[in-house]
Structures are given as structure tokens and as C-alpha cells.
Amino acid sequence: MMTGETSSAPSGKTKSRKPKYSRFSQQELPACKPILTPGWVITAFLCVGIVFIPVGLATFFASERVVEVVDRYDQDCIPPEYRNDSLEYIQSTLTDKTCDRSLIVPKQMKGPVFIYYELDNFYQNHRRYVKSRSDKQLRSKASESDTDNCKPEAVTLSNAPIVPCGLVAWSLFNDTYGFSVKSKVLDVSKKNIAWKSDQEHKFGSDVYPKNFQSGTLIGGARLNSSIPLSEQVDLIVWMRTAALPTFRKLYGRIEVDLEANDIIEVTIKNNYNTYSFGGKKKLVLSTTSWIGGKNGFLGRAYLTVGGLSLLFAVGFIIIYVFKPRPLGDPSYLSWNRNPAGI
Amino acid sequence: MLQEADIGVGISGVEGMQAVMSSDIAIAQFRYLERLLLVHGHWCYRRISSMICYFFYKNITFGLSIFLYEAYASFSGQPAYNDWFLSLYNVFFTSLPVIALGVFDQDVSPRCSIKFPLLYQEGVQNALFSWRRIIGWMINGFCSAVIIFFFCTNAMEKQAFNHSGKTAGRGILGATIYTCVVWTVNIQMALSINYFTIIQHILIWGSIAFWYIFMLAYGAITPTFSTNAYKVFIEALAPAPSFWLVTLFVSFSAVVPYFSFSAIQMWFFPMYHQMIQWIKQEGQSDDPEYCEMVRQRSLRPNTVGFTARAVARTNRLKDRNRNHSRY
């Protein structure tokens, strides 16, 4: 903070007390001081518009190219005699859960065609649900009894640990789908539907299901206890908890192309109970593009914001042409317009 | 007296260091007082008020995005982001740029601060920390958070988010929203600063880069610690074009409201220091007549203190008539 001459001392007698000058401590570093002149503002909006609109068009058309077939089946798959008592139907082990549906392919779907199940009103992101799992136990056999977070699905009545424990695993989705077109069965590939990092690092290859779904209340699928967890891909996909209450999870892939107007016969085993909480189940067949699945939002949003920016740029240009800022006119100073205060 | 005053300034000199030891600020010569008040006082006021407003803004943006997520998690208390992301937001990714604002920012150069002493009145009359400005910044934070959250969730909802058909889970969506928040608050900082040295560039863009590096590093730690952030960037986000497109789109859209407001304000309703910036930019600040006229304005008898402010408020009309006749 001390600038100016040296202190007035006889030269050679007392050392100067002036601190060493440096551009940093004197806050004189080379700097650029941009201000929002009309030129910059118009340029910025034009740039945003020029970049966003082509990207928006590319994204929008990519999303439009995706072909998607969505079929809600949970209401229609209840047999007529149980229409008023869906809970009785779904929880009974004696009723036949097979359901046949027909889907029409609207446009040609180039393989691979991805199969998803979509659940609605299912809060996989609830805190207590998300907490109810044991990552240690999933990873290695040695931590089998690490089931503290998993209550109430932690141990059996005889205190043996449940593997995998917790509500997330217990509620594993167990509807199955079989596809055929023109009486030819379509193969559903289950390879690579789970993330690699999950399969290799989060689910151990020496961990086998034990005492799973052994209680009175069954929440979902049963697991084959001779397959290690790292190969139980449905479980791995399910255990990656979804973000929102409406979500899709990858069930499998059909590798062949599906032609337009094909009728796909789907054989569904309607096992999963979404009736007790008003949830919905949907089957989704979808292709993908470089951007992913079908969602026109990003493309449309890019176009909207790009268009708005161009509109702003044009507006600013018009204002600048008709009402330019009078340069240096002192009557525009606010203390001259409003002299008594700030 | 030094101790009783709001700010005590001591002058060190041949009479000893007693005044210096009991003062808040020490200077070496009496004439440095002008610079202390007009340059550093003005800067200090502006830096502190901007810093506090910006702090409110960035924390509201962050906190509101978490709150909005709760509406989709049935208010169970599940945060959208990984635990360590939550803890380190204010430590690593958004704290250093605030230092760039609060320690180094200069809205006008020292020469202009001395040339236009009326700028000091901004502090006296609390022009930069009025309730209107504070609430304005809070509303800015609110709007940014709403834009970020809803654009991200609508762009990355249930459909597959990359070419291999996988859907976005909580870890992926959380990391995406967090990335957008970090980008937005740092771009907002870049728009708020008036003075860009190499330090500002390093702190602002460095914080953003550090976030990506942190995602890589944290994602490489064993899943025992990193839980759902394990390899989230390297495996899921980085290869997916939709992540980069969503980040680009959301970050820029979230600052468009502030940018437009700022542009219109700078152009049509500039504040004092912005007027000085305009004058400096157009080369008028060297005009001696003009500067003299401006400087005259500040030599008024009652310009400090509560009484003066009250007088100025009530006597606005009288003052206007009197001053128009002067010019």
C-alpha cells in the first residue's frame, strides 16, 4: 500500500523503508478489462446462436431417427376374472402369469434393437432403499456376513446371512419376455447389458447367491445359486439404482433387423408386483443413434436457445442502429440526471 | 479514538508506533490517506459486496439443485450427488475463483479512482450491497438452479443415453448435474469480474479442470470409497456425446438471463463505476474539463454519515433545482 518516494532520510545513513516493488503486490499485473460493449454482446449472442442451431438440428434429427415401440402391459395382462383384485392375482403362486402381446413395428429398426422394461412410480432413489445394500458383500465372499445396512433383508430367521442382502436385491425385477416374429423365435442377447466396471469390480466372481428370497415375503426374482454374482447380469443392471421414479433398465438385445410393419409376438411372464403401489410396467423396444435413445428435448432446447440468442442479437443490433449510446455525453451521468444522490 | 472508530488509521512515524499498534490500518505518510480511501477503500467495498452476493448465489444454485432432486426422490433425503462431491463443492471447485473476485478484482484503475472521488460514495451510500442487489443475486441463483436441474433431467431421462443402449442411473445423472453446476457458477464468476489477469484465468478455468481431474481420480479409487462414482467419468460420461452436449447447453443457457440483464444494464442504466469504465474505454477520461466538472460534484459539505444520507434523501428535490442552475 505504500507508493511514492522513499522516506526522507539522509542518503547512505538509514535504509529505505519502501517495500520491494513487485507487480503482484502493487496489483499492477498485466490485465485485460473487458466491458460489455454492444459489440461484445452482439458477438456473444451471435456465436451462441451460430453454434447452437446446427448442433440442435443434428441432435434433433438423430433423435427423430430412433424408432421406439412402447407397450404398457400391466393392466391388460391381468386376466378378466382378476380385474378388480389385481393384488390377489399377482401374489398368488397358482395363477398363470403368461401374457401374450402383439407389437407392430412402425418403421424399419436396424439391429441391435434394445429391449427395456420401464417402471413408473417406483422410487429406486429413496434414501432408505438406496442404503439397503452391502457393497462389500457383493464384492467378495469373505465379507459375506457384512449385512448391517441391509435390514430387514439381512439375515434369515436362523441368522444366516442372505447373499445378496438388502432391499435393492430383494426387489429384483422378474418379468421375462420372449419374442418371435412370423413364428420365428428372436434371440435375446444378454451380453454386455451391464456396465463393465460393475461386472468386474463391484460384483465378485466368487460370490454365489445364498438364502436369497427364502423368507415368507418374496419381493422379486429368485437367483440361480450356481451362477456367481458377476455373471448375474439382470441383478447387476437392477442394482445400479435409477435416478428418477420413472426409469428404464436394459433387459437385452435383439441383434437382427426388424422390418416395418412386422408383428412381434411377445410372451410376457407378468410376475412383478407393481399393483400394490400403483406402479406401471411398460415394455420398450428401441434402436439407438449416436446420441442415445429417443428424446427430442435436447434438440429442441438447443434450437430454442439458439433461436432466442439470434433474436437477442438482432434486437440489440436494431437498438444499436436506432438508439446508439451517445458517447461521452455528460448529461447521461446518473448524478446529473438525479443529482441529489446515488 | 482509533479503537472506538469503525476504522482506525494510524500513521507510523518519528513519534513512535503506538498509533500503528492500536489501529486497523497503518500508513507511512499522511498523504497516503487519499489513496487508502479512494482507491483501496472503494475496491475493498466493491470486492466484499460482490463476494458476499456471489457466495449466496453459488450456494443457492447448488443447494436448490439438491432440493429439486428431493422432489423426485419422495423427499426421503437422498442427495443427487455422491457424498464427497457434496463435501468438496465449497472446498475445491468453487472456492478459489471467489478469491479471484474478493482479493484481486478492480473495477476501475487506481488512476480513475483518484480522479473520480465520487466513486467512494458508492460505499458510503451502500449502492452495491442494497437489499435489491442481494435478492437479485439470490433470484439469479434460483433461476440458474431451476434451469440446470430441469434441463438436465429432461435431457437425460429414461431413454438410453449412449450408443450402446445403457440408461443413465443416479450416479450418472448426479455427476452430469454437478458438472453443469460447476461450469455455470464459474462462468458466472467470469462474467462478474472486471479485471482479468493470469491469476483469474488460472483460478477460474483451473477450478473447472480440477473438477474433471477429481472425477477421474476419485473414480479410480476402489468402489469401497467411491461407491457410485466409481469410473463414472471415464467409463460412462466421457465417451457419451450426450454428456458433453448437455453440459455445453445447460451451462450457457443458465447464464443467458444474467448476461442479458448485465448487457442491458451496462448499456442503458449504467452505475457509477460502469460509467467510469465507459468513459475510460472511450478515451474521455483524459479530458481535463470533463474530469474537473465531475470532480467538483464530489466536493459537497455533507457527504458522509447517517445525517448526511438522511438529508440527501429528503432534500432530493431542492438539490436538483439548485444543481441545474449551477450547470
UniProtKB/TrEMBL annotation, chain A:
Q: Main location per UniProt?
A: membrane
Comp. bias intervals (Polar residues): 1-13
Keywords noted in UniProt: Membrane, Transmembrane, Transmembrane helix
Q: Which InterPro entries match?
A: CDC50/LEM3_fam
Which Pfam family is an annotated match for this chain, by its short name? CDC50
Q: Which family does it belong to?
A: Belongs to the CDC50/LEM3 family.
The cross-references to PANTHER family, in alphabetical order and at most eight, read: ALA-INTERACTING SUBUNIT, CELL CYCLE CONTROL PROTEIN 50
> How is this protein named in the record?
ALA-interacting subunit
Which species expresses this protein natively? Rhizophora mucronata (Asiatic mangrove)
Q: What is the lineage of its organism?
A: Eukaryota, Viridiplantae, Streptophyta, Embryophyta, Tracheophyta
Automatic annotation (TrEMBL), chain B:
Q: Transmembrane region positions?
A: 55-72, 84-104, 134-156, 168-190, 202-221, 241-269
Q: What is its main location?
A: membrane
Cell compartments where the protein resides: Membrane
Looking at the record, the residues that make up the P-type ATPase C-terminal domain are 20-270
Which InterPro entries does the UniProt entry name for this protein? ATPase_P-typ_TM_dom_sf, HAD_sf, P_typ_ATPase_c
Q: Does the keyword Flavoprotein apply?
A: no
Top-level taxon of origin = Eukaryota
A single GO BP: phospholipid translocation
Keywords assigned by UniProt? Magnesium, Membrane, Metal-binding, Transmembrane, Transmembrane helix
Molecular-function annotations in GO: ATPase-coupled intramembrane lipid transporter activity; metal ion binding
**A cellular component term, taken from the record's GO annotations:** plasma membrane
Its record classes its membrane topology as: Multi-pass membrane protein
Q: Which Gene3D superfamilies match?
A: HAD superfamily/HAD-like
Per its UniProt record, what PANTHER family does this chain match? Answer: PHOSPHOLIPID-TRANSPORTING ATPASE, PROBABLE PHOSPHOLIPID-TRANSPORTING ATPASE
Q: What is this protein called?
A: Putative phospholipid-transporting ATPase 9
